[in-house]
Amino acid sequence: MDDLLESLWSVERPVSELRPGDHAWLCYETPEEQSFVTGPFVDEGLARGHRVICLAERAGGPVPGLGWPPAGGAVPRVVALADLPGPVGPAVVLEALAKEITLAEEQGCPVVRVTADMTWALRAPGGLEELLACERRMEGEVGPSTMVMAVCQFDRRRCGAEELSRLFTTHSVRVVPDPVFDDPVLRIARTFRPRGLALAGELDASRHTRLDEALCRVMEAGHGDVHLNMSGLRFIDLGALNLLAERAAERPAAVSSLVLDRIPAQLFSVVERVGWHMLPGLRLGHPS
Q1: Where residue 151 sits, what CATH number does that domain have?
Q2: Contact 255/224 with Cβ under 8 angstroms?
Q3: Taking the CA of residue 135 as centre, how many other CA atoms within 13 Å lie in the half-sphere pointing to its CB?
Q4: In a designed cystine with 45, which of 50, 73, 171, 275 is the match (CB 3.0 to 4.6 A)?
Q5: DSSP readout, 94-127?
Q6: Which domain, by its residues, includes 72?
Q7: Within the chain, where are the H helices?
């Protein structure tokens, strides 16, 4: 269901390319995935002098996907659930956020960034319907705006399939993490379901270091299998394959194996013929 929903988006943007008028959807599965969007969204806004408004449980407490305090001197304005008049629901939160946006406009802020994890609202009686109404209102107000952009976050582990399918229709944009590396030849992007990297373009000797850096970061940050989605690769040299074999053999103890997924047919035959997939810690996953 989740993959089907994500395939229906007409607009998908990396977080650094969000713009005023974007009412964006982030459906995450782990805190790491959440932080790869929320962190850059907030940090870039603060660095550029934007007004950044975040929703948190309490003032001075952790901001979902961000932690506290953020890096650097500037901090976002926090709307604290604990300080809002109860009972607190989506409508109360929306009014509080609207007041902060109006204040920013009155103070001449050039751009306003809003981010809120609204998963909690689904657990209250009638929470889904109230949240849908608020999201539609937010879409109607943010969409035409020339200064406001918003990222609405939902934890897919705590949402039902029907809830997700209804909520996603109230957002105009799906936001994804920025690529780890991107140039005219090669693109390396983080993936989270499954955890790993997606490669696209051509991987030659001049970009081995970029792949190695990205792969080592992923391997050091978690446990279980690390997957490489290779469906977008048009070319990979033997040196890169040797590099993958070396990293698989030297993998941290918490990493089960390095899995090569969706290998293009021409590369698959090379891997099988040479026998790379039989090396320690390296195995073939989903076919192309």
Answers
A1: 3.40.50.300
A2: yes
A3: 30
A4: 50
A5: HHHHHHHHHHHHHTT-S-EEEEEE-GGGGGSTTH
A6: 2-176
A7: 2-7, 31-47, 90-106, 127-142, 161-167, 208-220, 238-249, 265-274
Check whether residue 48 and residue 131 sit in a common domain. yes
Q: Are 22 and 150 in contact (CB under 8 A)?
A: yes
Q: Max Cα separation, the chain?
A: 67
The number of C-alpha atoms within 13 Å of 156 and in the hemisphere containing its C-beta is 18
Per-residue pLDDT tens listing for the chain (288 residues): 455 555 555 689 999 999 999 999 999 999 999 999 999 999 999 999 999 999 988 777 778 777 655 555 778 899 999 899 888 999 999 999 999 999 999 999 999 999 999 999 998 888 999 999 999 999 999 999 999 999 999 999 999 999 999 999 999 899 999 999 999 999 999 999 999 999 999 999 999 999 999 999 999 988 899 999 999 999 989 899 899 999 999 999 999 999 999 988 878 877 777 777 678 899 888 776
Tokens for 76, please give them: 């976002």
Boundary of a domain, candidates 176, 199, 214: 176
